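Q: What structure does this chain adopt?
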Amino acid sequence: MRGATLITLLGLACGAVSFTAQAETPSASATAELAPSAMDLYSRELPPKYDKPPYSLMSLSVGHPNDGYQLRPIALKTNRHRWVKSAPSGHNWGHPALVKMLKRNARDMARAVRGSKMLVGDISSKKGGSLSGHHSHQSGRDADIGFYARNAKGKPVTLKRFVAYDGEGKAKDGSGFVFDDRRNWLLVKAWLEDHRAGLSHIFVSRPLRKRLLAYAREHASKDQLRQATILLKQPKRAEAHDDHFHVRISCPKKQKEICREHPRRR
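A:
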């Protein structure tokens, strides 16, 4: 199988913080937990240099977003700024560049709008590979983020579940929740301004994309509007993403040898 590998490294990513860990190599017990396609990748040897420091001490994101695995990831945990609903299932593991970006996002949102708490869904399992309910989320570069909401009276609320919204910003489940244009735009803006993780995609439904861009035309700079127009998109051949953002970070520039930016064609 062609298409090797994504490596996500804190130490080499711009502005990221490096860390050390015990060198880890694929094992029989590890491959047994992965989907067949990921097992094929896991059994392949990485280029020799990745068996030695500094690469052997880094978090590695291997393969395509939809056909890969990860080594030495870190976990995102719940705190006063964020609710990680995927933690109990063990789907809260990702590459440090992504996890640290989400930490910054949650902290900055709490500072921008007092009391805001970011809702985080699935990232990846600890070893990566196929994740139930997802086409991607296999190599630690993807994360689902719930939308900020207001109640029927316009007051900001904190949710612990994903809620789907229509193009008018109304909850589809009849709960009365309303899509919070301001806070959701502030989150998008935070992603646009965070250059350390190398954000490459922000997936969202077309009606909500239209809504966010309309808000941006009134409250954002022309450059921010241009960037948002490029990054915000509804993924092809996938769910509409009307109940969460799906963000993805890019492959590190120095890892092109083993990294594949785009999903594997099936």
